[in-house]
Amino acid sequence: MTAPILPGAEPFSAAGGPHGALVLHGFTGNPGSMRGIAEALAAAGFTVELPLLPGHGTSIEDMIPTGWNDWLGAAEAAYAGLAGRCETVAVVGLSMGGALTVSLAADHPEIVGIVCINAVVSAPEGMKDAVAGLVAEGMETMDGIGSDIADPDQVESAYAQTPLAPLLTMFEAADSFAGRLGEITCPVLVMTSPQDHVVPPENSTIIAEGVSGPVERVTLERSYHVATLDYDKDIVIDATVEFVRKVSGA
Length: 250
Known about the structure:
The protein has helices spanning 35-43, 60-63, 68-85, 96-107, 127-136, 164-174, 177-180, 202-210, 233-248; strands spanning 12-14, 19-24, 47-50, 88-94, 113-117, 141-143, 161-163, 188-192, 215-219. Strand 4 (88-94), helix 4 and strand 5 form a beta-alpha-beta unit. The model has no long low-confidence stretch (mean pLDDT 95). The chain contains 9 helices and 9 strands. It starts with 11 loop residues before the first strand and ends with a helix. By secondary structure, it is of the alpha/beta class. The strands form 2 sheets. Strands 1-3-2-4-5-8-9 form a 7-stranded mixed beta sheet, with helices on both faces. The protein has a two-stranded antiparallel ribbon with strand order 6-7. 50% of the residues are buried. Helix 5 packs antiparallel against helix 6 (164-174). It has one domain (12-248): Alpha/Beta hydrolase fold, catalytic domain (Rossmann fold, 3-Layer(aba) Sandwich).
């Protein structure tokens, strides 16, 4: 790391009962955006891991050399640690964390349930090619996409810039998601902000219609992309805890 961890961006762990929950933050964000969910799950008695994904939560320079395989590897390691000491594990993800959640569920049918909050599973039309073109021209960053929040009193401590090469790796990974959604047979909770200015809301529909397991949906009418910090954060937290409790048999 080239810089210390930003205040509030620290990873979170809680030792609880035999049921585990893995919580994953989004692209250029950090655990601060998901801490409320993680702490609520811990208070409900779950064993919780909320890792700081590689390159995040310090400085943009640390993220530029990272990519999808690094973030997925960290998520896999955190999942393996939980699965090794818990009877069940559910996974919760926001934005790119939702993409990681989908990938984990496709690879691990033993996961008892997943929660996808404004998850990204497809690149907007033309976006991947546009980003690839900028990378080919030697550009490293563009304006940031963080802190898309309706509540003016809330700020996400995401990076002010978006690293382009890492973003391209996420879009390239998304190319495989559509073909793998049908492999997900566990229960799925999909939460969507219709006024999302970062991830098109139709991503949630792609997930809901593509998975093979039972689906529940929650619409977050008052929130933008980072709904976990926005006006509907209590709805997000309560729905997540209730869902994880139900699928875990806790």
